[in-house]
Amino acid sequence: MPYRLTVIGTGYLGITHASCMADLGFDVLGLDIDADKVRRLNSGELPIHEPGLEPVLRRGLDSGRLRFTTSYEEAAAFGDVHFVCVGTPQKRGEYAADVSYMDSAIESLAPHLDRECLVVGKSTVPVGTAERLADLLARLAPAGVEVELAWNPEFLREGYAVEDTLKPDRIVIGVRSERAEKMLREVYQPLGDIPMVVTDFATSELVKTAANAFLATKISFINAMAEVCEAAHADVTQLSKALSYDDRIGGRFLNAGLGFGGGCLPKDIRAFMARAGELGADQALTFLREVDAINMRRRARMVDLARELAGGSFHGCTVGVLGAAFKPNSDDIRDSPALDVAVTIGAQGGQVTVYDPIALGNARKAHPELHYGESALEAVRGAHVVLLLTEWPEFVDLDPEELGKVVAARRIVDGRNALNTETWRSAGWHYRA
Ligand code: UGA
């Protein structure tokens, strides 16, 4: 008899995990405290944009193996394994992560537990959190109920969430008992032969943070090279390509441009620095301060380039912005470099019109002060400067001739090094990247 699973928290991670586990044949109960979200999920409506996820969600609902609730009591009665997937955002005005949703989830679930089960943290947390939560769980669970905690960080990327969940590069679990290890091995057995690292709580928490710190460092490395290339009149795209042939370096996450954003990399490197400081190991991570600074400098550089193309000032200048999501194939605008640039230019007097294929609704809600177009052509109509800030395929495929007919001036900054320079230049565009 396979385990019955609950998934607490229905963000990008939780919805994907719940839907995929139901697809693998488990009975799954998703839980969220947002009743409206639960209602929408139960009717097969995805509250986020994630390619390929909706059919998996619907299959789960239709098969009767997946449903969603707001009741912790029901979740406690249902689950053998409870996955906690709640958000751990950056604290306001601080570097540290806010893990209070994690605490709330355990506090809400634990008192209702009345049978043997495993509680598994999946969210990205500062090292040491699992140990603290294990104590909290032990304190709040009714006496005599056999319950323990395990840690199982998640490495999925938005835009590829289903693929990454069903075919992960590796599975990492932090456990304190053979029983917990055995249960998690059984849960992931349907995924087939995936490399598995079984370790302690602290190491499992750190693997996730270290992975994101490495990825962020790789991006900032190539962006630092871009700064030097620009000063030396060299070509960072060629440089990156040449580096990528070295297997030890590899070409992924080596695209220079506007840098990283989203709900993970920026806040994770900051939370990592904050936690290292608490542990007295802050010196080990001072380089991450530089990684962060290089990344933020990209946004400032983009604004400078746009201003230069606008003739030195944004006043009286119309700027067409292509992209609002923090990356293509996502509707996520959390810490989006594209929106950050758009907002800054607006604040400096530019008349900014933004278009994004999917993230327009979210952008509108968060930044009603900007103007929005319903298509790329509409966003750049009458523009003195066009900025490509998120490399959606439909932007990469834009016809420079067609675009050239509606703009006020053929000037473009390619913030993602995504366009074919020659094609745009030969169509008479002043092209910068
Ligand atoms: C990231 C990690 O890649 C996942 O492994 C991790 O599980 C996830 O965070 C998380 O912690 O939950 P995600 O935030 O979805 O995933 O996005 P990425 O694909 O990593 O992209 C992050 C940012 O880096 C984007 O803004 C993207 O445009 C930028 N980027 C990426 C570059 O600027 N250059 C590159 O070469 C690659």
Automatic annotation (TrEMBL):
Residues 320-421 form the UDP-glucose/GDP-mannose dehydrogenase C-terminal domain. Its EC number is 1.1.1.22. GO terms for molecular function: oxidoreductase activity. Keywords: NAD, Oxidoreductase. InterPro entries: UDP-Glc/GDP-Man, UDP-Glc/GDP-Man_DH_C, UDP-Glc/GDP-Man_DH_dimer, UDP-Glc/GDP-Man_DH_N, UDPglc_DH_bac. It catalyses: UDP-alpha-D-glucose + 2 NAD(+) + H2O = UDP-alpha-D-glucuronate + 2 NADH + 3 H(+). It is an enzyme of class 1 (oxidoreductase). Belongs to the UDP-glucose/GDP-mannose dehydrogenase family. This is UDP-glucose 6-dehydrogenase.
